[in-house]
Write a structure and sequence with these properties.
Layout: E1 24-28, H1 35-44, E2 49-52, H2 53-59, H3 63-67, H4 82-92, E3 100-103, H5 109-117, E4 127-133, H6 150-167, E5 172-177, H7 182-194
Parallel strand pairs: 1-3, 1-4, 2-3, 4-5
Helix pairs in contact: 1-7
Length: 195
């Protein structure tokens, strides 16, 4: 059986030359699981680039309302088709030589299809999906003082992760205990990437 195209990863073209990209990590986890913290740890440690869906949206807010279907004004911007283009542009302008972490991207089948299509532009190494596993009853505790709809974010997380498993059954999903200390979680993730 051939390798699914969405698990092939990227050689980014730069203006002067092409170079081999490092690993591609899709970081998924419920709210308060430390997903973004662990993505930053991979940036500060091994030097991997981080492309965060939330950061991309914050940097390009004007791109999202104009592409949004009117009846869906309240839809999560991470599901907006405009995010595909923004992530693609971020990949194009990012040094991928040490690898890249996609934080909060791949939240729908459409995004999975787009990531698959990016193999035309980027030769992507086999992607690794790191799932930070945290029990539902402890989710959001670190965020209790923030004005956030934790229940909705938890539903979004389960929808996203279920989509990944449904549409990409052969994906390399590695589960890490997100209840451990931050340093221990980071150690587990580094071990996965080294292997």
């Amino acid at each position: 059986m051939s390798t699914p195209p969405y698990l092939l990863v990227c050689r980014a073209a730069v203006p002067s030359a092409a170079y081999a990209a490092g690993p591609v990590v899709l970081m998924v986890g419920p709210p308060g699981s430390g997903r973004s913290t662990q993505a930053e740890t991979l940036k500060n440690g091994p030097g991997m680039a981080v492309i965060s869906a939330h950061a991309v949206i914050a940097r390009n807010p004007q791109k999202f309302p104009k592409n949004r279907i009117t009846p869906l004004q309240g839809v999560d911007p991470r599901l907006d088709p405009a995010l595909n283009e923004s992530v693609e542009q971020a990949l194009q302008s990012t040094d991928l030589s040490e690898g890249v972490v996609l934080d909060g991207y791949l939240a729908s089948q459409i995004q999975g299809d787009h990531l698959t299509a990016l193999r035309e532009k980027f030769e992507l190494q086999r992607a690794i999906i790191i799932q930070l596993n945290v029990p539902n009853d402890t989710v959001g505790r670190p965020l209790k003082d923030q004005n956030r709809d934790i229940e909705q974010e938890l539903k979004d997380y389960h929808r996203e992760f279920d989509s990944i498993r449904q549409y990409f059954p052969e994906a390399d999903i590695r589960t890490v205990d997100g209840t451990k200390a931050r340093e221990e979680v980071a150690k587990q993730i580094r071990k996965i990437l080294q292997n």
